[in-house]
Structure formats: C-alpha cells, structure tokens
C-alpha cells in the first residue's frame, strides 16, 4: 500500500522489474496533486535570502534500485539554496534527530555545494550546462558533500520545468562576481542579529597581540618577533597585516620584494627549533636581476642558518612533492566511488571497488602527506634543525604540511580551540585561496583543488588511530568539511585576509550545527564505524600502497622508535602510515549510502547497548531494594532515557534510521562470472570476508 505523499511511477529511469506491480496510474497523479500540495512544508528563508524560481508536482525519488518510488513536493531555488518541500512521513521527528543543521535541512542543497547536474532524456543520463534546447524529464544533482538527489519532472508543468531547470543551472554553474555571493546579502541582513559565542576563544591572529601570545606560548619569542610592517596591507596584499619573522631580519628586507623571499615563522618546537615557510621570488629573465635576487636570498639564508648553532633544512614542496594537479586528479576519481545513483549501481561497483580505490591514488596521497610531516617532525625533534618550507606562493602545500606538523607535535593543536586557532593562523591568515580552491565563483575549474579537505582527511587518520589524544571527534571534522560550502561564514570564502577585510565587516560567526540533545561524554563518538565497515575499507588496502618506497634511515629509526613505546597522548603523536593503516574516512564519504551502513552496528550502537543494559540492571536493583523495604506496590517504571541501539547506524550520527538495503553482502549481479568456489577464493580481495559479518 502506498503511504501518504508517496507514489509509484515517474519518468526518467529504467522500466520497473517484471516482479514489480505499480498501483498508481500516471493520470492518478494529477488527481492527487491537490492533496499533496496542501501538505507541503513551509519554505524557511534566511535573512537576506530571496526566492528565485519554483516548480510544483516534483517527485523526489528514493534511491532504491529502479522501483521509481518517491515523494511529491515542490522544488524551489533561492539565491542561497535548492530546496525540496514535501510531505515525507519517513523523515525523522525533531526529537528523534541526533544531529541536525540549523541552516540547511535534509532536502536542502546550498548553491555552492552543487558539483554536477545531469538530466535524463529518454532514459539516457547527460550532463546539463548552458542554455538547453530540450528539457529533461528527470533531474539528478551530485553534491560536493557527496549527496545525490533525483527529481522527477514528468508531471510538472512545462513552463515550470523550464524555469526551475534553467534557474538551477544558471545559479550553480554561471560565473559570479564576488559581491554577488549570498554571503554579502546575509551579512547585511543579519548584522544586527549575529552574536559572538562567548565560549569561543579561538585566536584570530588579526592583531599584533595575538601573534605575540602565540610566540610566548611556543617559547619562540627568543629568536623571532611579530612585525606590523604590513599593517594596512601597504607592503603586500597576499600576507596578513601582522606576522612573525626572525629577530635578526631587518624590516626593510620585507619591503624589498613585497614579502616574497622572506622566512615567515609558523611554529617553534620545545627545543628552540622552528618551522618556517617562504614564497618564491618573482621570476626574472635578465642576469642582473637574477644576481640581485641571489644576493638577497644569500643574506636571508644566513639569518636562519648559522652553524653550528642553527642549521636549516629546506623542503621545496613545489618541485619535490605532490602537485596540485595530482591532488585534484586523485580526488576526482576518488569521489566517484561515493556518488552512487541507486542500489543497483552500488552493488555493480562493489565487485571492483578496491581496484577503483587503488586507481584513484587518494589514499596514497594521504600517506605521502603524513610521511612528509613525520620527516619534518624528525628534523625538528630529533635532529634539532630548523625547517624551511618552500612553495611558489606558500599558500597551499605549505599550509597543509605546516598544519600537520603542528597537530603531530603540539598537543594544544589537538584541542578544539587550538585546532580552530591553527586553521585560522595557517590557512586563513596564511593566505590559502579558498575562493579559488573551492571554485566558489565558478570562474575556473582549473583552480579548484581540495587542499583543505586533504588536510582534514589527514587529521582524520590521526583521530582514527589515536582518539584519546584529541579533544574533538571525527564528527567535528565532517561538520567542518561541510562548512566549506555554507556561504554564511566568511572563513572559507576569500583568498586572503586583505580580500576579506576590504569586502566585509569583521565579525565572528559560530558554526550553525548543533545536537538536538546534550552531547555525550568525550569519546562517545570515537571510532563510530562498525568492524565490518573497517574491514571493507582497510583490510586489504596494503596492496594499494607502494611498498617499494623505502623510508630514509633516520626517518625509519625515528618512526619505529616512537611506535615501539607507549603512546604519550600529551606529547609527540605519529600516525601509522603503512599498509591498511591508511583508511577511507567512512563517516564523511559513506554517510549517504544506506548499503554501506549497518543498522544497530558500530561503536556508538555498542556503547548505547551497554548503557541500556546498565540502566536495566539499575532498575532491577531498585525493584529488589524496594521489595525488601516495602510491602506496597512497586512504583511505575519511568521511560528509558536511552535510545534503542538497534535504531543507530554504524555511520552515526548522520545515518540515523536511513533506509537499509536488503541486498546480500556479496553482490549477486556477478555470480555467473565468478565461477566455482575455488575461483571465488582466489578473488577474495574483491569481497568482504563473510566471517567478519
């Protein structure tokens, strides 16, 4: 029987399987249109948000095989988001949701979060862009947070289809001007209603005092000084107004090449060694200019390299490490593993999942980043050497590696406030081009590279391997990655502090995410992925790592020595980087795929079950004590305060009560090609070990 607001039929997908019987004829849809419209959810607009276009009688499909089931509603497009408004009885009540977003709902997509748009024409899926001559009967939207939405338009009025499809394409794909971003409309409308969170003590590094405080905290003030030579951005718009340089460096040297070629301080180790970064000097052609640059760099080098008292090691990240193109290419392949249109596609892909994962090289890139950070930590900690990171603009890989080194070596950066301050110092003030790297203006796909997401993935590896060392969970990192595409925060929408300052009023916005119930104790979310998922993603990934890449002798000794001792969670922290230890961040990448979830599974469900049992034991003890002390009637049982563990998912809290697939663990689509049992045993790398289920 069909529930309210749920219909069968619809266009743009393959015909139902022979065993499926549809009890709703197309003409009945129009008869029910009025009833569906009356139950639509109200569209909630943020301050400054405006409705641009809308379409009624849109069918939001359920991603389950080709059953073509869905929910009726209205599809709208504002200058902030795409939203589906429908009567969905399967949605959770507010008191059921463990985690929700204050700004966007389950069926909302911010315009910046749209990755690709596809249309279905006569059962063929094609990418949509520009002006269309023919409009699709089904719209598919792939999001940057890896959600996939299917909207049926077969029974929507033709004029409404044209408006909504054209509007969505234009407002998500057309190049934009910075001032036209919703960020500015929201800032203007919400200016008087925004308050700073009094509990947020994140250091913003927008004053000289903040930098002096950081120098004092790390004991770096003996050899380094905070300078205000760029106050008002009169020297360089790429650098922050205030930053730190060696004490022996004359301030006029900062002026000489507009801040290029200057060793800028990142962090000081407990032994006095420092991590520095430097951008390249402008490229010159004539010999005279090159000689001037050489003499300048020689003088700069002597300020930080004074053997035997101070020795510096340089790491050229532009030539001897990853390229931005490597990162973008790897992630483009990697994300396709999770942009799944339906259950059939999931199981068809499952049989070759590990091969596709290996071909993406994403996990290997994570490993290389962690390895480079460990190498630098070894130089600072064991060899007592300064390390100077070199990069063309010192705003991409320098941000990534310097941040990882500090997370590994400085326990303050593993607290929530310390981590937020680290992001503010190394990424925001460090001039990472979020506007370009996230392609917020849609002006150049070539500039789009997920460098910050790579950093969060590397941090997740550390959190996953050493959860007690961190004051935050993987859920915090997942939320932070989602915030990249929420245009109500100025944090991730500019290329430099200068660009932000000249375009906005300085003000702090707290993240719009909360839990609808009080947070559990620290550590409750630790390792929220079930054992089966861990096996699926990590058990045989050792064959994906190039074991021939031998580690240097000093590095190997440092690495092995640290891992041979008990872990001090308040000191140096190194990750395991070999074989299956580098895993897929399941919570972020698999949270929207029901087939990859285990209802009632995972560490959170296990902990919840234990708490349920403890609560039951306490109630029984109270009954026994009451029976001993009173012959009267026993008091009525109060309601349990705990959630049933069977209702939790292995990817909690993002996948609570989502649809669960009834498909077997082993895909049936390829049974004929698998052969007998011996052949199946030979190909075990392609499947999950059933013994782990």
TrEMBL record:
Keywords, ordered alphabetically: Coiled coil, Cytoplasm, Sarcoplasmic reticulum
Alphabetized InterPro entries for the sequence: MTMR12-like_C, MTMR12_PTP, Myotubularin, Myotubularin-like_Pase_dom, PH-like_dom_sf, Prot-tyrosine_phosphatase-like
Pfam families (alphabetical): 3-PAP, Myotub-related
Domain Myotubularin phosphatase: 205-589
Gene Ontology cellular component terms for the protein in this record: sarcomere; sarcoplasmic reticulum
Compartments, as annotated in UniProt: Cytoplasm, Myofibril, Sarcomere; Sarcoplasmic reticulum
Keyword Cytoplasm assigned: yes
Coiled coil regions, renumbered to chain: 603-630
Domain of life: Eukaryota
Gene3D superfamilies: Pleckstrin-homology domain (PH domain)/Phosphotyrosine-binding domain (PTB)
The protein's role, per its UniProt record: Acts as an adapter for the myotubularin-related phosphatases. Regulates phosphatase MTM1 protein stability and possibly its intracellular location. By stabilizing MTM1 protein levels, required for skeletal muscle maintenance but not for myogenesis.
Subunit structure: Heterodimer with lipid phosphatase MTM1. Heterodimer with lipid phosphatase MTMR2.
PANTHER family in the record: MYOTUBULARIN-RELATED, MYOTUBULARIN-RELATED PROTEIN 12
Family of the protein in this entry: Belongs to the protein-tyrosine phosphatase family. Non-receptor class myotubularin subfamily.
Protein name per the record: Myotubularin-related protein 12
Organism of provenance: Canis lupus familiaris
């Amino acid at each position: 029987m069909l529930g309210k607001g749920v219909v069968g039929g619809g266009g743009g997908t393959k015909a139902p399987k022979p065993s499926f019987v549809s009890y709703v004829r197309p003409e009945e849809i129009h008869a029910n249109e009025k009833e569906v419209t009356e139950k639509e959810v109200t569209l909630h607009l943020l301050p400054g948000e405006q409705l641009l276009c809308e379409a009624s009688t849109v069918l939001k499909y359920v991603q389950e095989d080709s059953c073509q089931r869905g929910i009726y509603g209205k599809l709208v497009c504002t200058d902030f988001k795409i939203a589906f408004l429908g009567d969905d009885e399967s949605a959770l009540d507010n008191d059921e949701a463990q985690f929700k977003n204050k700004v966007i709902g389950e069926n909302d997509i911010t315009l910046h979060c749209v990755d690709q748009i596809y249309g279905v024409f006569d059962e063929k899926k094609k990418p949509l862009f520009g002006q269309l001559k023919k409009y699709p009967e089904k719209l598919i939207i792939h999001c940057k947070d890896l959600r996939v939405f299917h909207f049926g338009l077969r029974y929507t009025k033709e004029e409404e289809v044209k408006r909504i499809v054209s509007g969505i394409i234009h407002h998500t794909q057309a190049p934009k001007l910075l001032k036209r971003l919703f960020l500015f409309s929201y800032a203007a409308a919400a200016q008087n209603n925004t308050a700073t969170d009094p509990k947020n003590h994140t250091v913003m590094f927008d004053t000289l005092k903040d930098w002096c405080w950081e120098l004092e905290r790390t004991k770096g003030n003996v050899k380094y000084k905070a300078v205000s030579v760029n106050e008002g951005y009169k020297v360089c718009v790429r650098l922050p107004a205030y930053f730190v340089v060696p004490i022996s460096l004359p301030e006029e040297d900062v002026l000489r090449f507009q801040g290029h070629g200057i060793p800028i301080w990142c962090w000081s180790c407990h032994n006095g060694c420092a991590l520095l970064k430097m951008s390249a000097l402008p490229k010159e052609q004539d010999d005279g200019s090159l000689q001037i640059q050489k003499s300048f760099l020689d003088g700069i080098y002597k300020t930080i390299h004074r053997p035997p008292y101070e020795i510096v090691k340089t790491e050229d990240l532009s030539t001897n490490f990853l390229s931005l193109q490597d990162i973008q290419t790897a992630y483009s392949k990697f994300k396709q593993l999770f942009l799944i249109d339906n259950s059939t596609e999931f199981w068809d892909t499952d049989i070759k999942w590990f091969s596709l994962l290996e071909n993406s090289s994403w996990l290997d890139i994570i490993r290389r980043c962690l390895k480079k950070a460990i190498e630098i930590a070894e130089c600072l900690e064991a060899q007592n050497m300064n390390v100077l990171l070199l990069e063309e603009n010192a705003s991409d890989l320098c941000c990534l590696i310097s941040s990882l080194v500090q997370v590994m070596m400085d326990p303050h950066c593993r607290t929530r406030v310390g981590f937020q301050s680290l992001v503010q110092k190394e990424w925001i003030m460090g001039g990472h081009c979020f506007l370009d790297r996230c392609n917020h203006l849609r002006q150049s796909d070539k500039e789009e590279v997920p460098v910050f997401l790579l950093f969060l993935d590397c941090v997740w590896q550390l959190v996953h391997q050493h959860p007690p060392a961190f004051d935050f969970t993987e859920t915090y990192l997942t939320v932070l990655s989602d915030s990249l595409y929420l245009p109500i925060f100025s944090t991730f929408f500019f290329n430099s502090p200068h660009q932000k300052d000249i375009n906005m009023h300085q003000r702090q916005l707290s993240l719009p995410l909360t839990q609808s119930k009080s947070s559990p104790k620290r550590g409750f979310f630790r390792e929220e992925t079930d054992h089966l998922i861990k096996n699926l993603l990590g058990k045989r990934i050792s064959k994906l790592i190039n074991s021939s890449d031998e580690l240097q002798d000093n590095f190997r000794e440092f690495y092995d020595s640290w891992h041979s001792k008990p872990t001090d969670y308040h000191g140096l922290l190194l990750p395991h980087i070999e074989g299956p230890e580098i895993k897929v961040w399941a919570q972020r990448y698999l949270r929207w795929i029901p087939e990859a979830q285990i209802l009632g599974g995972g560490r959170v469900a296990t902990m919840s079950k234990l708490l349920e049992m403890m609560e039951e034991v306490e109630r029984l003890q109270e009954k026994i004590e009451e029976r001993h002390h009173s012959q009267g009637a026993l008091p009525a049982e109060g309601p349990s305060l705990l959630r049933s563990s069977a209702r939790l998912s292995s990817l909690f809290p993002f996948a609570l009560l989502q649809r669960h697939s009834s498909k077997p663990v082993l895909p049936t689509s390829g049974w004929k090609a698998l052969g007998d049992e011996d052949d199946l045993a030979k190909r075990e790398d392609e499947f999950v070990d059933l013994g782990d289920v």
